[in-house]
Design a protein that fits this description.
This protein is mainly α. The chain contains 11 helices and 3 strands, in the order ααβαααααββαααα. It has a 3-stranded mixed β-sheet, covered by helices on one side. Helix 1 packs across helix 6 (about 120-140), helix 3 crosses helix 9 and helix 3 (about 60-70) crosses helix 10.
Length: about 260
């Protein structure tokens, strides 16, 4: 009888956990998040106003979508939430004495930043893995990318690409150039220290590397299965670099671009 009670109690706990974790994932499949776990944590510690402006993905430059995929998670279109090759490489490098580097996919970053507290405990990592599975199960890739672009921390008390674009470049997120997009992606690993408006040589080097990766992937056509067709249809085939970084930048389809 005692074991029956324990089993019943464990069943109720499991059902409650399932309900609590699945419900917000399903709701946020369609509803814009009013905040995120990171925003709430920053608000509690800093007690200052934040700049967070939600935009649907149709109103965000495809260049910044490509830039974050190129710099953060190149296998995003094809993986199921985890990049096991990157995880294995990071573990091997750590065993060889190197500093532990991140191997989180965009889905994992959304799971962590939207739902969980910051930290490296096994409990939090386990919850991150569980929420990652739920996101990949209930959300399409487009929604995962859309939420990432809106809740990513992009500076002190600044979240999302719209707030960052207005703050650093005085343009809306749909007007970002490839160079500006690559610069924003360059500061994402540490946006509270790296500055897009006052970039260091290191940040500028990261920007140039990301621009090259964007070209190597073939432009935003790399995300043709994820980005809305209307967004790709209105993107110029060739964008001349404003500051001479790149003579030509192929956007939707490299086969239709002139490289002359």
């Amino acid at each position: 009888m005692h074991m029956m009670r324990i089993r019943r109690w464990l069943l109720w706990v499991a059902l409650a956990f399932l309900l609590v974790s699945v419900t917000p994932v399903i709701l946020l499949r369609w509803l814009p998040p009013v905040s995120s776990a990171v925003m709430l944590e920053r608000r509690l510690t800093e007690r200052a106003s934040q700049d967070y402006q939600w935009l649907p993905i149709e109103q965000i430059s495809p260049y910044i979508a490509l830039a974050v995929v190129a710099s953060e998670d190149q296998k995003f279109p094809t993986h199921y939430g985890f990049d096991f090759v990157a995880i294995k490489e990071a573990v091997v490098e750590r065993q060889d004495g190197a500093r532990l580097r991140g191997a989180s996919t965009l889905t994992q970053q959304v799971a962590k930043n939207l739902f969980l507290w910051q930290g490296h405990s096994f409990i939090r990592k386990g919850l991150e893995a569980w929420m990652t599975v739920l996101l990949e199960l209930f959300w399409p890739k487009q929604r995962i990318l859309e939420v990432y672009l809106n809740i990513a921390e992009t500076g002190n008390r600044t979240f999302g690409m719209q707030a960052a674009s207005l703050r650093y470049f005085s343009v809306p997120a749909n007007a970002l150039t490839p160079e500006q997009a690559a610069l924003l992606a360059a500061i994402l690993p540490n946006p509270r220290k790296m500055k897009a408006d006052r970039p260091s040589e290191y940040v500028l080097g990261r920007r140039d590397s990301i621009l090259q990766l964007m070209c190597d992937l073939g432009g935003v056509h790399y995300l043709h299965d994820i980005l809305p067709d209307t967004l790709l249809a209105t993107t110029p085939l060739v964008c001349s670099s404003s500051d001479g970084l790149l003579k030509k930048f192929c956007i939707p389809c490299p086969n239709r671009c002139s490289h002359g």
